[in-house]
Amino acid sequence: MHSETQPDNFAPIDRIPQELFNVILRSTIRRPGLRSSFSCLVERPNLEPPPGFHSWLPLRLVSRRWNATITSEKHLWSTIIARGPHAREWLILCFFLSVPRHQFPQPESSRSLNEFLISTTFPALTALVLVSDPSDQWEPGDVSPVTFEQHNTPSLTTISVNSPWQVPRPAAFARLKRVSLDSGLKVLPMHVLGLLRAAPQLEEFRLGCGYYQGFDPDSTACGLWYADVGLPVPVTMAHLRLLEFTEVIHRQSDTVWVLSRLLLPRAQVIRLDCTGPNAPHIFYYLPRTLANSVPGLPSRTGLRVVAADHSFGIEVWNADGTRRFIVRCDVGDRHLPSDSALSYLEVFVDRVRCPDVGLSALELDGTAGSLFTQRAEWAALLRCFPKLTRLSIANTSENRVDGRLAELTRALRERGEPLEELVFVGEPPLDLEMWKKKMKAAGVGSVTRVASTDGGSDDRW
After folding, report:
1. pLDDT tens digit string along 75-84?
2. Which of 29, 128, 171, 231 is the most buried (most CB within 10 A)?
3. What is the pLDDT of residues 102-123, one digit of tens each?
């Protein structure tokens, strides 16, 4: 239902008794299949709601009474989503139309949205998703930030924001379980540390915004975040399961600064994505105390090296695959020589430190495997893994292993330690029987070929 003209009190649809419309509305809200009771409160008309959500904007445009009824049922709102280049304006307009005009006479005011939110309680609101268009950024001081306090949103557990005007005040973080801060925000490392300290219940944290490059952040950020005074180190995140950082590396890594000051006893997935001219230096920046921050690191048993035209990454995981630590860097247009890949790998293995059980499984994807063509390169790689028992090498049409196996065989023979299993992953033709004989002579227990591997996390790359 949608009205192309200005809603008015004389529209036939508006003659439905208010009590009957309330019954219809609540029945629709609680219909099975709609996610989180009341779903998409605010949505631009030309944007499809996320899967499982229902767009309520057309219903709100039927008449003023319908709009007022929908927006007045605040005890049923569980999710607020506003997206697009004018997300803030849509929020102001929809909220403004739901309250008497004398309370907030200027909907275009930078304070009107804030004033509405801090004077209203949303008892059922669990998720707040605000996504501005990249071009919809505001200069410091132009727009007041969204202000949610604990008493306004007692059930709020999830926020995803990408612009300074959207960031709630500190008190709202105390009960949050999932936080995503995306592009458009600029923060200091100490702010991130302070935010994490203020959110002891946090289970998932994704930081995709940029770090402020300078001595002081802009005035907007100063009002939103935290000072570095009185922060205990380390900051223990007892419930955090997923931690993701995306960073443009200039001279040093601000993410590593934060990570070295955290204690993550229950972390299951930690992922660092780095771009910029010095992105590969992330491996050198990793602290030697990394195992102190992530106590589960010494129990990792498998490692994967992944490379592509413009990226290089390393991942480690434990025996059952439930805990992973991933570092990925964008190397730009530069060619990644084998000695650089080996250097990154040696440093990473040193930082991870797995003395308990040792890294026993190594996986090389097609491009990563193609970096090693000489016996000396294979030998240097094998030295990084003294407890290696299983080696998997991808065999793809673009990166056939045939031409490199002779050098690998020599390196394995010189290694002097038996290798229990060698696995070729992929479908391209390979004279498996011939290589079984040669590898057996080099101390390899079994040689097999499979279509794919189930270790690590292919979907993450």
Report:
1. 667 777 776 6
2. 128
3. 454 454 444 556 666 666 777 8
Query: What is the pTM for the complete model shown?
Result: 0.81
Q: What are phi and psi of 331, to 5 degrees?
A: -95, 5
Secondary structure class of 407 (helix, strand, coil): helix
Residue 237: closest CA among 284, 183, 192: 192
Amino acid at the residue 89: E
Cα distance between residue 461 and residue 308, in whole Å? 10
Distance of alpha carbon 410 from alpha carbon 407, whole angstroms: 5
Task: Judge if the upstream peptide bond of residue 234 is cis by omega within 30 degrees of 0.
Answer: yes
The gap between the terminal CA atoms of the chain, to the nearest Å, is 43
How far is it, in rounded angstroms, from Cα 274 to Cα 251?
13
Q: Which class for 400: exposed (0-12), middle (13-18), buried (19 or more C-beta within 10 A)?
A: middle
User: Regarding beta strands 324-330 and 311-317, do their DSSP bridges make them parallel or antiparallel, or are they unpaired?
Assistant: antiparallel
For 41, 64, 158, the CA distances from 20, given in Å and listed in that order, are 21, 16, 33
Count the Cβ atoms, other than its own, within 10 Å of residue 383. 13
* Kind plus residue range of the DSSP H or E element containing 66: helix 64-72
- Provide the angle, in degrees to the nearest 10, between the axes of the packed helices 64-72 and 87-96: 100
Q: Tell me, what's the pLDDT at 187?
A: 79
Distance CA 13, CA 63 (A): 8
Task: Please give the Cα distance from 415 to 443 (Å, whole number).
Answer: 9
Residues found in the chain: 461
CA pair distance 241, 28, nearest whole angstrom: 35
Q: What is the mean pLDDT of residues 308-320?
A: 88
Residue burial 153-166, b: 16+ Cβ < 10 Å; e: rest: beebbbbbbbbbbb
CA–CA distance, 92 with 338 (Å, rounded to integer): 55
**What is the spatial distance between Cα 370 and Cα 364, in angstroms, rounded to a whole number?**
9
Amino acid at 270: I
